[in-house]
Amino acid sequence: MSEGENQARVIPVILSGGAGTRLWPLSRAARPKQMLDLTGGGSMLALTAARVADPALFAAPIVVAGADQADAVAGALSGIGTLILEPAARNTAPAIALAALDSYPDDVLLVLPSDHLIADPAGFAAAVRRGLPFARDGWIVTFGMKPERAETGYGYIERAGALADGVFAAARFVEKPDAATAEAWVAGGRHDWNGGIFLMRAGTYVAALAAHAPDILQAAEAAMTQGAAVGHRIHPDAGAFAASPSLSIDYAVMEKAEKVAVVPVDVGWSDVGSWQALYEVSARDGDGNAVTGDAVAIDARGNLIRSDGPLVTAIGVEDLVIVATGDSVLVVPRDQCQRVREAVDRLKEQGKDKWI
Amino acid sequence: MSEGENQARVIPVILSGGAGTRLWPLSRAARPKQMLDLTGGGSMLALTAARVADPALFAAPIVVAGADQADAVAGALSGIGTLILEPAARNTAPAIALAALDSYPDDVLLVLPSDHLIADPAGFAAAVRRGLPFARDGWIVTFGMKPERAETGYGYIERAGALADGVFAAARFVEKPDAATAEAWVAGGRHDWNGGIFLMRAGTYVAALAAHAPDILQAAEAAMTQGAAVGHRIHPDAGAFAASPSLSIDYAVMEKAEKVAVVPVDVGWSDVGSWQALYEVSARDGDGNAVTGDAVAIDARGNLIRSDGPLVTAIGVEDLVIVATGDSVLVVPRDQCQRVREAVDRLKEQGKDKWI
């Protein structure tokens, strides 16, 4: 197995359907995380697309996004091959099914979340090249992110034997472990984080759905055959797509599939899944403050300070997240930042939707 | 000495010339503290005027304000007798001189800062009645606020012998003491806080200026004689007023004057001179949070949270001041809130005047 110059390029499938509240109040229902510029380098979506823009390896991407985000996505990205607009959110397994059904069976798809960071794109591209022969040979190739801590919020991939240099058969996909299990796995060195990135032939995925989640495949097929295409935009049929179960690819396919490979990588991956995670990947000043926007910090240390416009003045405070958007201010200790969900839940209860 | 029904009413002189940065970023150069509604009951200026609105005791007030605040003051208050518009800020001694010179010598003036709170206005009015005979008799009557702590930021008035029930001769006016001195004074029971409120005949004040600060008197006289009156508004001459020294009444007059009396009061006075001071006089919820405006507090205790508009979400934080205006956010521990001045100074250094 070797990658020939004349073989077809990989088609990136960028999943841009998520909403999420973990970076609330910056991320909002109408302004999902992938549309945010969290690093100063552009939106997460644009950074994701740039990561798979090398024409020697990649074709123009398929982007799968919520229908309400169509213009935002089109405005954020140039060079989209196809924009598939989900009529409703049904999680990743159905979203990827739409892209796979829009491709030829032998097309190799690289499925990527649109809202993760990778600090070393060249290392990532090398890993894709490493996995590519296996994808062409019918494997579902995953990328195992080197675990940096005993994180209980992620899924893990356990390695089995080596298939080639830097490529292993995957023994197991496991969802969020308890703390003791996570610690044992990280210490053991055979588990990697599941970063939600997959490389496989379209036909491999369709066959896996047929075997393990036929109702998803059926709904996606109906949605595509009954849908409409306008230019490069595809509108799957809403009624047909709504019939699909809402399942992740991990749950619907990966935990059950045969011929799953894992390419371990150490490429500075982050899902930026919390304000704390953003703090960790951000540049900081001499006092450990990660500051974006207009701010005055006096005798303040270890804070994430982020403003969309208002001047933020932090005096004598430590290890806080302080976020100011035009209409909302959040103050929470960094180590409690997962609790923003509680605030969003309370706002929902109170019907204060304008702040969600 | 007794207050006869037929005697002229007291003329309140409300000093509204201050700017101040201690409640920054809510108070601003263009929106001084007296224009703020800090309690939900109206602006500090309006509350001050309401405190001296009883027609049985008080005539229509003279308000002395900065020229740039003319319309704001007129909009905030109805029933102003005279609005004297200072062409420049020259501290309290010259400001009161303008009001005294606009009055008949036998008019009794009650000089009041416009940005203090008094929780018990009836008690305060009773104290004014108690001091009134002495004011008519040529004394400068001050009001000694019962000290609640060994505050080093205030001036103190030391009592000498009693002149009448609840009225004492003042032994000394003393500026901000050190901590040990303040503690000794509060323990000793003969010192009260100087609340900056004075009751005296206009002629008494003019004579005191002639004796102790003749250059202030001369500048104020020239400013009034060369000034212009438009309706109820008086515009003292700018050039003449600019020649006045900039001095407080305490320094220019009170520390030197003869026949100074003090009426000790316990009327819930606060100068609301810091966010901490505002917290102390504010209503609080069961978690000790004093909240004004849209806010969500989750597992948050002892915070002052104040918003002019943005939703403020505080999670897991204690004893903070969190203030959000349309264009500025402040986060500082309550016990460090005096340090807002450092932020204002830094903004000045950086030329960021729009936030000051």
Properties at a glance:
5-stranded mixed β-barrel; 19 strands; 11 helices; 4-stranded mixed sheet; alpha/beta; globular; disordered N terminus; homodimer; 356 residues
Describe the structure in your own words.
The structure is a homodimer of 356-residue chains. Chain A is an alpha/beta fold and 356 residues long. The first copy, chain A, is 29% helix and 28% strand. Chain A contains eleven helices and 19 strands. In chain A, the strands form four sheets. In chain A, strands 6-9-7-8-12 form a five-stranded mixed barrel. Chain A has a four-stranded mixed beta sheet with strand order 14-16-18-19, covered by helices on one side. In chain A, a hairpin with a 2-residue loop joins strand 10 and strand 11. The radius of gyration of chain A is 21 Å and the shape is globular. Chain A starts with 10 loop residues before the first strand and ends in a 7-residue tail after the last helix. The N terminus of chain A is likely disordered. Strand 17 of chain A pairs parallel with strand 19 of chain B.
Summarize the structure.
Chain A contains 11 helices and 19 strands.
Proportion of residues in extended strands of chain A = 25-35%
Mean pLDDT of chain A: 94
Biggest sheet strand order of chain A reads 6-9-7-8-12
Dominant shape of chain A: globular
| Strands of chain A, count | 19
Intertermini distance of chain A: 50 Å
Radius of gyration of chain A, CA atoms, in whole angstroms? 21 Å
Counting DSSP H or I runs of 4 or more residues, the number of helices of chain A is: 11
Low-confidence stretches of chain A: 1-6
Helix content of chain A: 25-40%
Order of helices and strands of chain A: EHEHEHEEHEEEHEHHEEHHEEHEEEEEEH
Q: Largest beta sheet of chain A, briefly?
A: 5 strands, mixed, barrel
Largest interface: A-B, 35 and 35 residues
The oligomeric state is homodimer
Helix/strand class of chain A:
alpha/beta
